[in-house]
Amino acid sequence: MELIFQNVWLVPLFPFLASSLLGIGLFFFPNSIKKFRRLSSFISIMFLNIAMFLSFHFFWQQITGSPIHRYLWSWVLYKDFVLEIGYLLDPLTSIMLVLVTTVAVMVMIYSDSYMFYDEGYIKFFCYLSLFTASMLGLVLSPNLIQVYIFWELVGMCSYLLIGFWFTRPSAANACQKAFVTNRIGDFGLLLGILGFYWITGSFDFQQLSKRFFELLSYNQINLVFATLCALFLFLGPVAKSAQFPLHIWLPDAMEGPTPISALIHAATMVAAGIFLVARMFPLFQMLPFVMSIISWTGAITALLGATIALAQKDLKKGLAYSTMSQLGYMMLALGIGSYKAGLFHLITHAYSKALLFLGSGSVIHSMEPIVGYHPNKSQNMIFMGGLRQYMPITAITFLFGTLSLCGIPPFACFWSKDEILVNSWLYFPILGSIAFFTAGLTAFYMFRIYFLTFEGDFRGHLFDDVKKFSSISIWGSLEFSEEEFKLEKKPTLYPKEANNIMLFPLIILTIPTIFIGFIGILFDDNKMNVDFLSYWLNLSINSFNYSNSEKFFEFLFNAIPSVSIAFVGILIAFYLYGPNFSFLKKKIQLKPKIDIVLKSFSNFIYNWSYYRAYIDGFYSFFFIKGLRFLIKIVSFIDRWIIDGFINGIGIFSFFGGESLKYIEGGRISSYLFFIIFCMFLFFLYSYII
Amino acid sequence: MSSAANAAKRALQQERTRLLYRRSLKQILSWAVHREIFYVEASKTRAAFEANRNVEDISRIDRLIGEGEAKLEKMRHPDPYTVPWAPGGSKYARSPPVPEEIGLVYDFGRQEEWDK
After folding, report:
1. B-chain residues within 8 Å CB-CB of A114?
2. pTM attached to this predicted model
3. Is residue A663 a part of any domain in this protein?
4. Are residues A580 and A643 both part of a single domain?
5. Among residues A289, A320, A391, A622, which is most buried (max CB within 10 A)?
6. Which of A135, A162, A185 is the last residue of a domain?
7. Average pLDDT for consecutive 10-residue bins of chain A (689 residues)?
8. Cβ atoms of A43 and A18 closer than 8 Å
9. A505 and A387 in one domain?
């Protein structure tokens, strides 16, 4: 059995091999390998399946009492400095391995159909396998340096995949934005890592927290410096997990193909930040100020994401802001000390959000032939509606994901989100209030998305009946007769259900969306008085003694407010966007003053959503324009002052030489004149003095 | 000004005018989504250029070109139109399949027979 644990490194190796094979094939034999498209995807999926089965095996071993395994090799050895690489296998790692591999396998199977006609099909699988390998390497890392290496790798893969269709300017800008924003976080992360190495002399997670605890006990640490290092280190997860204020890249990342949004920007990469905070949890616990910052960052992110998602018209951007909000919940949970609740929500959210994104991909796939391939059309919910009758399986799976995310029992996210809500309320009522309010907003915007997409009448044929043109005249007023420009009737296309290859992952992901929440349920007859997840995770953090004294029925009773507020959100969404809302609207007549107030409020909400809470505009003005202004000033100083000084010396010596040249004219009379003139000046000076 | 310098200046002005006209047409295509509107606007642009065809004064030509370029810059489209299957287009390298509902009839040159 020890032999298999020594080969845990095989888990990231298999997808890396698949990526290498495809990459080398594309580089050296592009024309040949493009003829074996299905074989390429088969190799990727098969290798990842092997990694998945290995992950399940390690997970089973860990939860049935196998000890924590850590294998290290010396990479750099110089005097007292040792840099080790290897892997750490504990219950947290095994849970993450299972999560990443299962979601990645589903996404790869889905991608086979989604990207089938794309000319970059093989390149896509190459990048996807590389990303999966990097993510698996990250969760297996035993120390901060190895985490940093794989952290950068997943960032690079995210850049390559967001900019997959890089010829489009919006996709090229989006991948650049994601990379630069993550670089800011990575810079902070590196400073934090080096700072903690300076304090403790170690990169290893367990040694780091142990030495830090010892030094803190003997008062041998400058607490301000340690807090600063922790905050710098936290900057990495802030960027990676799209927390405020480094969240701006996540909605733009939706320019990439939808399977990428499902895997990277919903389930795995954005969870890397939560994973790192969870790994550093024993250390952060010793710094209460840092924990406070983490919790408030999470709360603000949750609320901000929810408010921006309220009036989004793009399907994927709505889900992106939803992801941002849920990541805020996870960070809030970790900040208030609810280690298990944060990780529980990570797991339940990953499956639910992956399901939602894959469902949205199915919708986009069917909308593209009808309205066009530009994201402004195929992802625009204004042109959707009534898709449930055309795509019933997609609709029902999407509904399951929506119900889960809204925190409706007995779906997965209910169990995790409710725990966060209760714990945050007990920790600090203001945080609890923010979390509760956000839960209501979540239910509203998620069902708004569902109703706009799947209920009502199909609105994609609005193009057929357009008689008024949207173009404007650029040289003056446009006069033309409508009859002259009547469009011919185009053939009418209707959305169709996705094929079986795309439906299979949707159906499989519905299972964990419904049932995975039960691993966190405390049953009364549990002798340990601890649920499964708490028991598994307790093995990962020896310094944190967790005991769950809350009973099952007490938990359900405490869940009544959160479920109620979710239902309120759903009811409001149903009234505004649900089917037959015009029927309800006729009965409910509002007073004019209230109507005006509601309209101005809704305008504010629409503007808030459209301008992304004005944060992107602020960054554009303050940082980008500010930096460009600074660059102009620096360029001016460099060109006219520094270079001007050097050029001035050159010009001075040039013209000085030219003028000196004429002094030696060879005429004695001019020499005499010069001498007499200088003598005259000398006598004049001495006379004046 | 010598005749060679004059000729060089005139050649530069012709090139600038040609580029300005071509870029104007591309801008109009971005703004005027429907073809019929494009024809109308393109005709107006052509008429505006033709009105200044016989201007001889070099400095006046330079001024007119400068005004045209300033106007073009002012009316630059934030998201210029790209042919979908060209690089930068939404369908580039995606090779989307033709929907089953649309039947492709390969009757090249036999349209007149069908019309009969």
Report:
1. none
2. 0.86
3. yes
4. no
5. A320
6. A185
7. 73 95 94 90 95 93 82 84 88 93 96 94 96 96 94 95 94 95 96 94 90 90 93 96 94 94 88 93 93 96 96 95 96 93 94 96 94 91 92 96 93 92 93 95 96 90 53 40 49 84 96 89 54 64 44 80 93 86 58 85 92 94 93 94 93 90 82 92 90
8. yes
9. yes
